Amino acid sequence: MLDKNPAFHYWVFLCIFFFLKTFLNSMIQGYSRFKGNTFINPEDTERFADSDKEVIQKYRDLDERAARCWRNDLENIPFFLLLSLALVILGGNPQYCLAYFITYASIRLLHTYFYMKAKQPHRGAAFALGNLVTMSIVGHCIYIISLHY
Description:
There is one protein chain. The chain has helices spanning about 5-35, 40-50, 55-90, 95-115, 120-145. It is mainly α. Helix 3 (about 55-90) runs antiparallel to helix 4. Helices cover about 85% and strands about 0% of the residues.
């Protein structure tokens, strides 16, 4: 059933996109930890760290920013994925689904860019727009359900 639904195919692609986006964020964290000699585990610090304090602080800041961005993604993207899957399962129009998915993915990509570059109010605007898209999907799901009662 779902394998024949184009909206489901779009949703799977969206999941892959968000996996790759968060994977890239993890790579940035790993890079910043090695470049800045800031490691989470003591054994990693013993093995890999040296002691240039200026370099360490620069990359520690990047690592912390990437970690906060990662947490923000984990607070927002899973709800969007679940709600968008609900829309697909409810039989949402594939073109609407694709528009929602592309819009949200673009907004979250911008949000990450603005987060990593410390750009306000741009980051806040991207966050608000992402929530608006998510709430639009909620409304769309409620509308589809209401057609059956």
